[in-house]
Amino acid sequence: MGDKINKVVLAYSGGLDTSIILKWLEETYNCEVVTFTADLGQGEELEPARQKAEMFGVKEIFIEDLREEFVRDYVFPMFRANAQYEGVYLLGTAIARPLIAKRQIEIAKAVGADAVCHGATGKGNDQVRFELGYYGLNPEIKVIAPWREWDLNSRAKLIAYAEEHGIPIAKDKRGEAPFSVDANLLHTSSEGKALEDPWAECPEYVYQRTVSPEDAPDEPTYIEIEFKKGDPVAINGEAMSPATLLAALNEYGRANGIGRLDLLENRFVGMKSRGIYETPGGTILLTAHRGIEQATLDRGAMHLKDEVMPRYAELIYNGFWFSPEREMLQALIDKSQEHVEGAVRLKLYKGGVHLVGRKSDKSLYSMEHVTFEEDQVYDQRDAEGFIKLNALRLRLQKQRGHVAVDPSYE
């Protein structure tokens, strides 16, 4: 077990697995356990987590509403980059992990704990994300990962352990769960069990945040989103805080069947896994943000952002939020957003998000230059020299095969 552990901060949901971990930590390490439960907008009551921790005799219980910080300091900076892992995934689980890790490290310092603990399994990405966050913020911290240490490697063994130690078991936890769920204000993620066959269509009951597109309204919904420095600040003229705005977009997305994704992805640890994601508000936000960038970003800046985006998204997916390279890319991305201001109009309809209008005082779009009518600002004859200069290397390359070679070079 290594060095003696005196006090550990556990990321605690109040569910079966983390309740078992709590008891296991006390038994295995003979240490004091401090619980930390974060409200990231998962939509669950957190008071039961407090009650369970108290029932287990935990003296220091931290339950914190981190929704505003989550959206303001993690989700919005990520969306400035239009980040999508493997072209489609909006990183809803990955972006939540660094905030949880940060608060665990801060709480550990505040209470004098010498270790932190998470409930991620040894097969997934989250163990990497949590622990890279821990070590990036406190290189000396001790990390306990029960799933890599204990022998409770089946649902039956977990249930038996819970029963032996008087840990309450919800009725639906007896036996194999049909699939596992992670949720926060940005998305829900479902994987495992009923979803493991990638050929089988995801059952409708798996979806929790969106109506089926087929059942969405037959009339489109129009909304306007206003941006300042790359971040959304208002919907339909109403200013909102970051978390309130994302929650409102989630509701628009839910009602219109927007944001469903069935992805067979490459985990950082090497295997492929199938995830069913629902990101209703985030899907709307991505289209809206790209729309305002169309009007306000210079071509070179936009194309450079698109080049670095896959690298940035991969860093977040793999757990390197606190790495210097992510911070360097963030500085580049944030610099690009200085003039990304204005409003976009969107049409939401049966699972689709359609950009139908954009306007900005910082727009680079010039009607004078693009009109098909007569104008005074663009001399079309200039294009001839532009084309010839760009064609020069192509012409020389083509001519190379038809020009006689000087014998002196043979």
In short:
The chain is of the alpha/beta class and 410 residues long. Helices cover 39% and strands 19% of the residues. The strands form 3 sheets. A 5-stranded parallel sheet has the order 3-2-1-4-5, with helices on both faces. The protein has a 5-stranded antiparallel sheet with strand order 10-9-8-13-14. It has a 4-stranded antiparallel sheet with strand order 6-7-12-11, with no helix packed on it.
Helix and strand sequence:
EHEHEHHEHEHEEEEEHEEHHHEEHH
Q: What is the strand tally?
A: 14
Shape: elongated
Largest sheet: 5 strands, parallel
| Helix content range | 25-40%
Percent in strands: 15-25%
Q: How widely separated are the two ends?
A: 73 Å
**Protein structure class:** alpha/beta
- CATH superfamily descriptor of the largest domain: Argininosuccinate synthetase, chain A, domain 2
Given as residue ranges, the uncertain stretches (5+ residues, pLDDT < 50) are: none
Q: Can you list the strand order of the major beta sheet?
A: 3-2-1-4-5
Rg over CA atoms, rounded to whole Å, is: 26 Å
Descriptive account of the structure:
The protein has helices spanning 16-29, 47-55, 67-80, 97-111, 126-137, 155-164, 242-255, 280-296, 299-318, 324-336, 367-370, 382-400; strands at 7-11, 32-39, 61-65, 115-117, 142-144, 180-183, 188-191, 221-228, 231-235, 238-239, 260-266, 272-278, 342-349, 352-359. The chain is α/β, with parallel strands linked by helices and 410 residues long. The chain folds into three domains: 7-67 and 94-177, HUPs (Rossmann fold, 3-Layer(aba) Sandwich), CATH 3.40.50; 181-359, Alpha-Beta Complex (Argininosuccinate synthetase, chain A, domain 2), CATH 3.90.1260; 370-401, no CATH class. Helix 7 (242-255) packs across helix 8.
